[in-house]
Design brief:
about 325 residues; isomerase; 8-stranded antiparallel beta sheet; 26 strands; carbohydrate binding; Gal_mutarotase_sf_dom; 3 helices; Aldose_1/G6P_1-epimerase; Beta-galactosidase, Chain A, domain 5; EC 5.1.3.3; 6-stranded antiparallel beta sheet
Length: about 325
């Protein structure tokens, strides 16, 4: 993480053009999607691609106004949630150092679960299709059930069920995440969602946070402490102010992504235990993520008070549920 100039010459992404939803009319893709609508709001789900959200936008006379960065066509052909609008994180968020940790006196080895990454990343639910359950015009339930397979290198060794209830309600996108430990032993656990936002030169991120987890070259936490980004977020931080891929602990569980030149903003609110927030704003890159999560990176190995590290242990049969809401506002 390093400071970068506010006057960076890198090309900045603008709100997506209407033709970036061309995949809605693709006969190979459209049948796999779930479209939700309420008034002028639309949410498109891609259950087959990690239970991901493909788009969240508003229908306007000028075309779709995107509140999250929409999926690319390649996201579908390559089944890549990283190029979706957002995707669920189960049973932990972000990285686990060297894909290993110890729990209850047993060494857990996740190495090999994804050879693209040196460290285990984002759990396993985003790598599998989700099943469509109950559905209305404005809501849908998506389900995922994990059964460990010892033949698969790095497979998560605990049985669990996860669900997303996704709804357009009250002028907002509302996602309730839940998980149940269906194993016969305790299971370490964390969850979250990974939204990408349109990033322009005028974008600002507002959030009340207490401290930042500083990170090493592998984007793994070293210590919790002050940073100028903490004050910048409270005042309205430009994604170009710092190069960030960091966790922020003990935020107020509310953040606003604003586009003041476009006279609009999107406010994200979250329930406990989403007590941690990740900001991913790389330099020379159009991506911007502000993620609600229950745990800091590498929480199963991290040392520190629970309120700083996050995550939890689900006992056999125990269930955890919490809601995140994104509310658009124009004018």
């Amino acid at each position: 993480m390093r400071d970068v100039s506010l006057n960076s010459n890198r090309p900045l992404a603008t709100a997506a053009a209407p033709n970036e939803l061309a995949w809605l009319d693709d006969p190979a893709i459209a049948p796999t999607l779930v479209m939700l609508q309420a008034g002028s709001l639309r949410a498109v789900l891609a259950p087959a691609v990690g239970g991901a959200l493909a788009a969240f936008y508003e229908v306007t006379p000028e075309g779709p106004l995107h509140w999250l960065r929409p999926a690319t066509s390649a996201a579908f052909t390559e089944r890549d949630p990283l190029r979706m609008a957002s995707f669920p994180l189960f049973p932990y968020c972000n990285r686990i150092r060297d894909a290993r940790f110890e729990f209850d006196g047993v060494a857990i080895d996740l190495a090999g679960n994804d050879t693209r990454f040196a460290h285990a990343l984002h759990g396993n639910a985003w790598r599998h299709p989700w099943r469509v359950g109950a559905r209305t015009e404005s809501s849908v339930d998506l389900h995922f059930e994990h059964e460990p397979d010892s033949r698969i290198p790095g497979d998560w060794p605990f049985r669990y069920r996860a669900q997303q209830r996704i709804a357009l309600s009250g002028g907002a996108l509302v996602i309730t995440l839940s998980a149940q430990n269906v194993d016969d032993r305790p299971m370490p656990f964390g969850m979250g969602h990974h939204p990408y936002y349109p990033r322009t030169a005028a974008t600002r991120v507002h959030a009340d946070v207490r401290a930042m987890w500083h990170a090493d070259a592998d984007v793994l936490p070293t210590h919790l402490g002050p940073h100028r980004a903490v004050d910048a977020l409270r005042e309205g931080m430009s994604p170009d102010a710092f190069e960030l891929d960091n966790n922020f602990a003990n935020w107020s569980r509310e953040a606003t992504i604003a586009w003041p030149d476009e006279h609009r903003q999107l406010t994200m609110t979250a329930d406990a235990p989403f007590d941690h927030m990740v900001v991913y704003a790389p330099a020379d890159d159009p991506q911007l993520c502000v993620e609600p999560v229950t745990n800091t990176t590498d929480c199963f190995n991290a040392v520190g008070p629970r309120e700083q590290v996050g995550g939890c242990v689900l006992q056999a049969g125990e269930e955890l549920a919490a809601t995140v809401k994104w509310t658009p506002q124009r004018g």
